[in-house]
Specification:
Blueprint (H helix, E strand, L loop, with lengths): L16 H5 L19 H5 L7 E4 L2 E4 L2 E2 H4 L5 H10 L5 H13 L8 H10 L5 H9 L9 H13 L4 H10 L18 H13 L6 H14 L10 H11 L4 H26 L26
Antiparallel strand pairs: 1-2, 2-3
Length: 299
């Protein structure tokens, strides 16, 4: 490949060394020392080097497996595990991951992420942007409790006392992530998810340390209260992801992945209605106002 500039394209990756240095023409090789060095091919191809996939003409390898061998043989949850972890899960691991993903998929338009996606869908931004709007709201307060709960569970499995951690949060008047729910007295997703984890512990598929830590926190939270504060979806899925060996950061990523399906469904449903510019309040209603009464500009 020559070093000539192609109009509208710019310099080629490799320059012709003899042209650049004057080699073979009796010139001093050091005379052109300030010129850019030729970029090695591997430097370019390794810029985005990845262990996740290899894509070539006629070939798609996902963590080493040909995609045609995965199609029809693995579930979507198993495919997620494969891409994130590097190999296929055991059947028990795949079932637990799938259960957590199914459980967190939706929580209705009262969830800000769902409501925002539905509003965006009425603004002509397209389905992809509506989904991105909803997913973009899944932050530390709405969507991050699972990751935060996994971090607390890790403190207990690392040797800290559950009661001491509960006391710490109470002293700070802070919410303990993964417990209590503003909508459900008892989250209906808690019991079936924890039952699946307990079965996996009994069969030796997972160690059970995160489950024990979560139950210890729940027990400590209930002490001295007339009404218990049961675990919510964030706590239950945090236990599953911790038992399966996912780091806390990926715990949040998996929640976002799961909830994005619900966001997509709501955004599409709203799109199908044909409604335009649907705001946060029904049209006959106006937002409250607590500013000054009408007044004149006296200038």
């Amino acid at each position: 490949m020559s070093g000539r500039r192609t109009e509208g394209v710019g310099e080629s990756v490799h320059e012709n060394t003899s042209e650049r240095t004057g080699a073979g023409r009796g010139t001093d090789p050091g005379a052109d020392a300030g010129a850019p060095e030729a970029i090695a091919r591997d430097t370019v191809t390794d810029y985005w080097s990845t262990a996740v996939s290899r894509i070539r003409p006629g070939e798609i390898l996902l963590r080493g497996y040909p995609v045609e061998q995965l199609i029809g043989r693995v579930t979507f949850a198993e495919q997620i595990w494969l891409l994130l972890r590097g190999d296929l899960p055991t059947p028990a691991q795949g079932r637990l991951l799938e259960a957590a993903l199914v459980a967190a998929v939706d929580h209705g338009p009262q969830a800000p992420s769902i409501a925002a996606a539905r509003m965006a869908a009425t603004c002509g931004v397209g389905l992809n942007s509506a989904v991105a709007t909803g997913a973009g709201l899944l932050g530390d307060v709405h969507g991050g409790a699972g990751q935060q709960c996994m971090e607390v569970l890790a403190r207990i499995t690392g040797g800290e006392d559950a009661r001491a951690i509960v006391a710490e949060y109470r002293e700070r008047r802070a919410y303990l992530p993964g417990f209590g729910h503003r909508f459900h007295p008892r989250d209906p997703r808690r019991d079936p998810l924890l039952a699946l984890v307990a079965e996996a512990v009994d069969s030796g598929e997972v160690p059970g340390r995160a489950l024990a830590a979560g139950l210890a926190l729940e027990e400590a939270l209930a002490e001295g209260r007339s009404r218990p504060v049961p675990m919510n979806i964030d706590g239950a899925t945090a236990i599953i992801y911790a038992e399966l060996g996912f780091p806390p950061g990926l715990g949040r990523g998996l929640f976002v992945l799961s909830r994005s399906v619900g966001i997509l469904a709501h955004a599409w449903e709203e799109t199908e209605t044909g409604t335009r510019i649907k705001g946060p309040l029904p049209r006959p209603l106006l937002a409250g106002y607590h500013g000054p009464e009408p007044r004149d500009v006296e200038r």
